[in-house]
Amino acid sequence: MLYTYKIPSLILLAMLHFAIPVHAADNAIISWRDWSPQVFSEAKKSGKHIILNVEAVWCHWCHVMDQKTYANPAVAAAIAKNYIAIKVDHDANPEIAARYRAWGWPATIFYNSDGVEIVKRAGYIPPESMTALLLAIVRDPSPERVVGAISITNPRSSLTVDDKATLIAMHKSSFDAKSGSLAIAMKFIDPDSVEYALLSGMAGDNSELARANKTLTAALKLEDPEWFGFYQYSTHGDWDHPHYEKIMRTQTRHIRLYAQAYAANQNQTYKTAAENTLIYLNRFLKAPNGGYYTSQDADLIQGQKSANYFALKDKQRLALGIPRVDEHRYTKENASLISALTRLYSATNNIAIKTEALAIGEWLLASRQRKDGGFNHGNSDNNSHADSKLFLADNISAVAALTDLYEISADRKWLKQAIATADTIRENIFSSELAGLAAASIDKSDPLAPYVDLEENILAARVLNTLHHYSGRAIDKTLADKAMAYLTNSAVIASRYTEAGILLADAELNRDPLHLVIVGPKSDTNAAALFSAALANYQSYRRIEWWDRSEGELINHDVEYPELAKSAAFVCNDQRCSTPIYTAKEIPEVIALIEGIKANR
Q: Residue span of the signal peptide, if any (predicted)?
């Protein structure tokens, strides 16, 4: 299958003429400032409060708020008199995005002149309501509620029996048996819940397998029938009211999960969904000089809903133009795409997908990597200097991507890069004073205390633990345990509706991954077939390596393998290894035996 479909250049130029309306904020009468410590210092000196508008460039209601609320003269006057106004694109600042993710987009946050959060509001605020709120805060700037940081006095690297039971109960009770996904009004794929259900199902729990398949099948209704790619979510408690933005995070999650589900049960529909998503990305979000863009807007004309537009066929849409594409190329989004593509390649053995994943990796190294091994976010394509902050979201996603590239290529360069990035996280983001890993590098000049994000720490615990098994370094496991200490806190668990990601992390940190090693020359076709068969297994927690003796020992050479007359594979688990495996078809049978499950369930 050909994965790249380019729009003819003349048509593209015509589309761009119609498709990129002026952003409302460009003509705003409010003097918006960027997020910086200087703004908070200025507020303290002037006695003014601060209003923070966290928006997303693809977000319909963010556009409406710019056009109707912030363009309102009364609102602008009230802000100018008593506030300093900050606007942040949540894709451009992962730390702010993590800190205020629960408030949706747009999020409106108020601070007093001392930099203390006093009021938070979620979603669109009409002009009259905003004017009243601005005046009310001036009259009484008392915090609406004070929520202290979660204190962890006895950090643990694993769940207690009771907390694990609580999380499992939360997982089971949160499922919408009628429609799939979580039992909430917003319908989308919650990736950790689906992955946990899929893995539990493949281990023999038929009810969990049915749950995973129900959600994955239902979520296909969010796929754009013309251009492919997935809309972010649906409202009204069903899958029939989509919000039409297509953000990279949504695309990578769908590619990864559908690829993993296809590897588990060979459902061709899942394979097609993953492949079609890549077709969409290559048509609309692939940059001509490397990497991928961040998102495509929900609206053709910003602030005007576009359901009628997305009901059109391809040529009819193109005649009107295409929704705005955010052409920033961020590390997190591109690294996450690499990880998704490595899973798709593993499941399909399509060399074009592997080639694309490696190309994105080379682009990240060339354009986003710092000299110390860490990665800049990418608000500018000028990589001649380091960003002032390192974000955990970027760097832990990069560790995952680099490790995944090592897994599918057996090229040790990628693993060495992953190790260097983990060291940068340790040196810049780790703090002994915090539970978990902070969302950004620690800087005492920051106006707000460091923030620890649960989603980022789930990823960090899992990724750093996997890296530990590849690297053999105890310091990588220590860093994984640091993230896990936050996740296992009972207060954190109690604050969640459901969080299967903690269960996944706990299971992985307390056992070894399934370990598959191919021993033989990389020039040998049978060794290559064994390697492909090893990659094709559905396990998400695994360590796959190809040892060509001519390259010297593996970086973590923790098992001695016999010298054999021909290439062979070995499957290891719980300090036991199989006898040599000489044919690709034997690998799933041996994995099934070792894992205690039925092959090809």
A: 1-24
For the ranges 151-160, 171-180, 317-326, the lowest mean pLDDT is seen at 151-160
Q: Class of the 19-139 domain?
A: alpha beta
Instruction: Name which of 77-86, 154-163, 291-300, 303-312 the model is least confident about.
Output: 154-163
Could you tell me which residues come within 8 angstroms of residue 172 by beta carbon, excluding any fewer than 6 positions away? none
**Residue (of 397, 495, 510) closest to 454 by Cα position:** 495
- Asked if 248 contacts 337 with a C-beta cutoff of 8 angstroms, the reply is yes
Q: What is the C-alpha to C-alpha distance for residues 14 and 322, in angstroms, rounded to an integer?
A: 10
Backbone angles phi, psi at 15, to 5 degrees: -65, -45
For residues 109 and 116, is the Cβ–Cβ distance under 8 A?
Answer: no
Q: Residue holding tokens 């490595």?
A: 342
Q: Under CATH, which architecture does the 514-595 domain have?
A: 3-Layer(aba) Sandwich (3.40)
The separation between the first and the last C-alpha atoms of the chain, rounded to the nearest angstrom, is 27
3-class DSSP state of 571: strand
pTM, 2 dp:
0.92
Give pLDDT tens digits for 527-550: 999 999 999 988 889 999 999 999
- Measured on CA atoms in the order 170, 172, 178, 181, is the torsion positive or negative? positive
Tokens of 500: 């299967």
Q: Would you call 246 exposed, middle or buried from its count of C-beta atoms within 10 A (0-12, 13-18, 19+)?
A: buried
Angle between helices 454-471 and 392-409 (to 10 degrees): 40
Coil, helix or strand at residue 292: strand
Contact status, residue 275 vs residue 3, Cβ threshold 8 Å: yes
- For 180, phi then psi, to 5°, come to 85, 170
Q: Calculate the CA dihedral of residues 151, 156, 158, 159 and round it to 10 degrees.
A: -40
Q: Are 391 and 341 in contact (CB under 8 A)?
A: no
Token pair 């929900």 is at which residue? 298
- Residue ranges of the domains in the chain? 19-139, 514-595
- Across the strands, what pairs with 568? 519
8 Å CB contact between 320 and 309? yes
d(CA 464, CA 471) in angstroms, rounded, equals 10
How far apart CA 143 and CA 180 sit, in angstroms, is 39
Q: What is the enclosing helix (H) or strand (E) of 85?
A: strand 83-89
Same fold across 19-139 and 514-595: yes
- List the 295-296 sheet strands across, edge first: 246-247, 295-296, 325-326
